[in-house]
Amino acid sequence: MEILYCILALCCGVFVLERAWKVLIWVWFEPRKVEKWLRQQGFNGNSYRFLIGDYKEIGAIRKEAQSKPISFSHDIAPRVIPFIHQSFEKYGIVTK
What is the number of domains present in the chain? Predict the structure, then answer.
């Protein structure tokens, strides 16, 4: 009976390790591979950051954009989508 429990525990352990490996591939290796591929294509940008990504930076940029008064020009991008606007200014637009 103890052997059966050992085999069952071993199978469960292997299953958990396999799932953990697949999650690791999904959250770390695949994004890094895509990032490397995009950099080879000529796209620059922020590096991949596990789980949080650019959320802190997006929040700070949005708060800064909303703290300034809105201008009466037709250029509303810095106010509406400040992170994307800043990314275009920082990295440029890649065209082929």
Answer: 2
